[in-house]
Amino acid sequence: MIFKLDEIETIAKEVLDKVDCKTILFYGEMGVGKTTLIKALVKALGGTEDVTSPTFSLVNEYEVTNDKVYHFDMYRIRDAEEALDIGIEDYLGSGHWIFMEWPGKIDVLLPKEAVKLSLKMHKSGSRALDLELVNRILEKS
Predict the structure, then answer these.
(1) How far apart are the C-alpha atoms of 61 and 137, rounded to whole Å?
(2) What residue ranges do the domains of the chain occupy?
(3) What kind and span of H or E run contains 133?
(4) DSSP-assigned beta bridge partners for residue 97
(5) What Rg value do the Cα atoms of the chain yield, rounded?
(6) pTM of the model
(7) What angle do CA 102, 120, 30 make, to 5 degrees?
(8) Fold of the domain built from segment(s) 2-135
(9) Fewest beta carbons within 10 Å, which of 19, 33, 50, 94?
């Protein structure tokens, strides 16, 4: 999907219509619009709170209609062990929405099923969004 920022609310609804699990992993360069899209997704789910990047807190929690969203930013995480220290496994097993920026830092902890959402910026200022259901069998050693 190619979209401009003024179409983000429509794109958020389309994303929610297409996903078949509640864990969405956000990939893309700094400044491409990951947090902006998450803000629109939370709104589309019925959230009314101000959505901000959890870069320093690592996780923000938002109430949405009949559910919760846990928004993670793993940019400052050093490794999977640090994520375990904040209780990442409890969040991942909660059954609530998980929106995670920079998930590659904790690859070995990610759930078997998730939606990979990749954002890329075009020179024109529009964004390209790719959705992919990730079914992974993780080998833990």
Answers:
(1) 28
(2) 2-135
(3) strand 127-135
(4) 69
(5) 14
(6) 0.88
(7) 45
(8) Rossmann fold (3.40.50)
(9) 50
